[in-house]
């Protein structure tokens, strides 16, 4: 019997930690009505169960990734996983809105630390491109399919037991993952804090991203052209500009700007922002369409999204790596995005009396196959310009752009959808048709975002190949 390389066991541990955190981002959405009733949240206060997590998670990803390069990826991963697990316990036992919101913020910080370094660890653990493609395929399955699995699991736990268990379920998984990581995940010393201990730069980037995410998630409430949104957005941009200036002048910058010299790294991150903005918002509004128009319950919604997870898994685990090797990452990224775009366009035609087999299942299959093809390719392209010394930074940057894209897409799509629905109701249109009109507009915007990302993928991103004497992917100029 062939002995399995211990690195693959380590990959399982990394993905288990990642899955727990990805699940948490969607599993909470299903339980929000039960949480509101039990803890007596106001409608405005309830949004902070999600927002507190998003702000901490999105704001700390880049810093956590760089911290992993400096003090060791494994160390940061373990600290993050421990914080996330303990915060999950606090979330589960929360007896007041303030306690739950504070616990969610801590949970987001722990999630940022562990996920920011995961991609960098995979990159350094599997330097040969063929192995790297397989490993990234598995990672991509966890990252992409976890959202749909979370919807199903959230519905089951909330209906069968209580909302508390959507958090309690993380505790045993987290404990096992920490113990397994200590034993199985290889150590890395890191460069040392003296190589990038830019405290001022850290403060600027964390403040900028946190304020930016806050501004985005509150834009729906205040309006995109309000003084609140424009003012805070301007401050966030000013902080980001100050951070860039600081990095250019600092002797040992927190974020070496050389990482952006790679056309593939920069282009892939921009593509990811647009792609995630379109797809993440679609999943959220697709859930509302099933709930408010088709009258699906939480469990039915979870089951409806299950084909997405199944098809992503089928492609990510084995087929994606082989196809990337045969046809190249850029070609598979483009193919996957074309399929995903077809699924989004199909969703724009969903009727009031839609049926699952005709109006939803084709969408789920197209999105599942498309995401199963494009996300492994995108992850490889995002990391293609990274070195072992800045793998954590590159991974943290990739996670940050995905998070910002998701927050931006959700805010834009929810705002436009709600505005259309309100105007339709005011014009005397029946509620179900007014809701559908808002959803259709959002699905068209989602399609447009993915279409723009597709054009950029074709025109900006270059193919990657492997030299015979070098296992690392290199750009083809």
Automatic annotation (TrEMBL):
A Pfam family that this protein carries is: MFS_1
Stored InterPro entries: EmrB-like (IPR004638), MFS (IPR011701), MFS_dom (IPR020846), MFS_trans_sf (IPR036259)
Q: Locate the coiled-coil region(s) and give their ranges.
A: none
Q: What is its main location?
A: membrane
- Cite the NCBIfam families for this sequence: efflux_EmrB
Record localization: Cell membrane
Protein name (database record): DHA2 family efflux MFS transporter permease subunit
Output the Gene3D superfamilies linked to this UniProt entry: MFS general substrate transporter like domains, Multidrug resistance protein D
- What is its membrane topology? Multi-pass membrane protein
User: Which UniProt keyword terms apply here?
Assistant: Cell membrane, Membrane, Transmembrane, Transmembrane helix, Transport
Is this entry keyworded Zinc?
Answer: no
A GO molecular function assigned to this protein is: transmembrane transporter activity
Per the UniProt record, the source organism is Lentzea tibetensis
Q: Please list the residue ranges annotated as the Major facilitator superfamily (MFS) profile domain.
A: 10-465
Task: Keyword check for Cell membrane, yes or no.
Answer: yes
Annotated Gene Ontology cellular component terms = plasma membrane
TM stretches of this protein:
9-32, 44-64, 76-99, 105-126, 138-157, 163-185, 197-217, 223-245, 266-289, 301-320, 332-350, 356-379, 391-414, 434-461
């Amino acid at each position: 019997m062939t002995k399995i390389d211990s690195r693959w066991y380590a990959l399982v541990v990394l993905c288990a930690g990642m899955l727990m955190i990805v699940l948490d981002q969607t599993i909470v959405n299903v339980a929000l009505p039960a949480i509101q009733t039990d803890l007596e949240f106001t409608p405005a206060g309830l949004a902070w169960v999600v927002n507190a997590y998003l702000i901490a998670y999105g704001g700390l990803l880049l810093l956590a990734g760089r911290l992993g390069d400096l003090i060791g990826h494994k160390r940061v991963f373990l600290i993050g996983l421990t914080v996330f697990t303990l915060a999950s316990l606090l979330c589960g036992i929360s007896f007041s809105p303030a306690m739950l919101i504070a616990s969610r913020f801590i949970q987001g910080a722990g999630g940022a630390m562990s996920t920011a370094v995961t991609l960098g660890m995979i990159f350094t653990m599997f330097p040969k491109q063929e192995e790297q493609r397989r490993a990234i395929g598995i990672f991509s399955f966890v990252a992409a399919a976890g959202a749909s699995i979370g919807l199903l699991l959230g519905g089951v736990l909330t209906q069968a037991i209580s909302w508390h268990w959507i958090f309690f379920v993380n505790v045993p998984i987290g404990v096992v993952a920490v113990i397994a990581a200590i034993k199985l995940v290889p150590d890395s010393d890191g460069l040392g804090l003296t190589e990038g201990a830019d405290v001022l730069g850290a403060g600027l980037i964390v403040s900028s991203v946190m304020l930016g995410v806050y501004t985005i998630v509150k834009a729906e409430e205040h309006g995109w052209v309000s003084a609140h949104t424009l003012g805070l957005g301007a401050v966030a941009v000013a902080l980001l500009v100050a951070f860039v200036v600081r990095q250019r002048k600092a002797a040992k910058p927190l974020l070496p700007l050389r990482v952006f010299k790679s056309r593939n790294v920069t282009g892939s991150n921009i593509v990811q922002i647009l792609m995630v903005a379109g797809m993440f918002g679609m999943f959220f509004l697709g859930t509302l369409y099933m709930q408010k128009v088709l009258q699906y319950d939480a469990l039915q919604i979870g089951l409806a999204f299950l084909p997405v997870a199944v098809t992503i898994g089928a492609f990510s685990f084995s087929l994606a790596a082989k196809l990337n090797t045969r046809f190249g990452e850029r070609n598979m990224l483009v193919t996957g995005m074309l399929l995903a775009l077809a699924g989004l366009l199909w969703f724009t035609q969903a009727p009031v009396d839609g049926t699952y087999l005709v109006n939803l299942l084709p969408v789920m299959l197209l999105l599942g196959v498309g995401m199963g093809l494009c996300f492994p390719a995108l992850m490889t392209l995002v990391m293609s310009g990274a070195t072992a010394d800045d793998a954590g930074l590159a991974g943290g940057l990739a996670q940050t752009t995905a998070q910002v894209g998701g927050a931006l897409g959700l805010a834009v799509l929810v705002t436009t959808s709600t505005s259309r629905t309100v105007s339709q109701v005011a014009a005397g249109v029946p509620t179900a048709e007014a809701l559908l009109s808002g959803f259709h507009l959002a699905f068209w915007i989602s399609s447009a975002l993915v279409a723009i990302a597709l054009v950029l993928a074709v025109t900006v991103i270059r193919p990657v190949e492997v030299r015979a004497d070098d296992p690392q992917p290199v750009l083809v100029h």
